[in-house]
Amino acid sequence: MSVKATEPYDEGNIFARILRGEVPCRKVHETAHALAFHDINPQAPVHVLVIPKGPYVSMADFTANAPAELVAGFFRAVGETARVLGLEETGYRILANAGPHSHQEVPHLHVHIFGGAPLGPMLARRAGSRETGA
Ligand code: 5GP
Question: Is 16 helix (H, G, I), strand (E, B) or coil?
Answer without folding.
Answer: helix
